[in-house]
């Protein structure tokens, strides 16, 4: 019991540290590490809009319970990899940044209201937004990077962010913890709204 509490608190601290890193701006097109895997791994972590949406997937999975708690964090990276491939080969996709910001709004609200749609509907929502996140990663791949290693990097980083969301979401087993998780959903939705309006 104590171990799970420590893991959730550690995940929350890590999440806040990443989001609070003011100089870490995503979608710059800069080379985050100079290589394939390291660049891909760092790209999601250096974009706060990516971080909050990825964490929200894990949080929502906790409210949905099994099997969604594991299905959603698998669907998102898989579909995101497809979106990344589209970005790498420059398939046109409009309103990418809007889609990313909107993902934080929608997923944050799903957590805030503890929505429990059928698994197929939740997977469809998550998969649709994953396309935009993956596309952004793909289009911003450094020129010198190996595409496969870069894609593996951002998929692994995304999976870890989902796990952070699941760890924090486990607080929902207690009434006060459930309120904290739902409050985190509100914060994520508000942050997404700020990105959507161009404030952030």
Output the keywords.
transmembrane helix; 8 helices; globular; 200 residues; 76% helix; disordered N terminus; mainly alpha
Describe this structure in words.
The chain is mainly alpha-helical and 200 residues long. It has eight helices and no strands. InterPro entries: HupE_UreJ.
Globally, the shape reads globular
Mean pLDDT: 83
| Helical/strand content category | mainly alpha
Following the backbone from N to C, one meets helices and strands in this order, namely HHHHHHHH
Assess the beta-strand content as a share of residues: under 5%
Number of domains: 1
Number of helices: 8
The helicity comes to over 70%
Work out the number of β strands. Answer: 0
Report the end-to-end length measured between terminal Cα atoms: 38 Å
Radius of gyration: 16 Å
Give the uncertain stretches in residue-range form.
Answer: 1-33
Biggest sheet, in brief?
none
Pfam families: HupE_UreJ
InterPro entries: HupE_UreJ (IPR007038)
Keywords: Membrane, Transmembrane, Transmembrane helix
Protein name: Urease accessory protein
């Amino acid at each position: 019991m104590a171990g799970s509490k420590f893991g959730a608190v550690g995940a929350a601290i890590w999440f806040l540290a990443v989001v609070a890193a003011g100089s870490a701006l995503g979608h710059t097109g800069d080379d985050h590490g100079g290589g394939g895997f390291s660049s891909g791994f760092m790209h999601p972590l250096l974009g706060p809009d990516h971080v909050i949406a990825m964490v929200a997937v894990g949080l929502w999975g906790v409210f949905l319970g099994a099997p969604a708690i594991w299905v959603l964090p698998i669907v998102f990276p898989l579909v995101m990899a497809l979106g990344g491939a589209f970005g790498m080969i420059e398939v046109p996709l409009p309103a990418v940044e809007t889609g990313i910001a909107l993902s934080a709004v929608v997923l944050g609200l799903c957590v805030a209201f503890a929505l429990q749609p059928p698994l197929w509907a939740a997977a469809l929502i998550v998969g649709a937004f994953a396309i935009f996140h993956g596309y952004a990663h793909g289009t911003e791949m450094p020129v010198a990077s190996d595409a496969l290693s870069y894609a593996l990097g951002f998929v692994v980083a995304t999976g870890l962010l989902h796990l952070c969301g699941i760890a924090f979401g486990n607080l929902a087993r207690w009434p006060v913890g459930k309120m904290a998780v739902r409050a985190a959903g509100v914060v994520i939705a508000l942050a997404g709204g700020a990105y959507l309006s161009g404030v952030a």
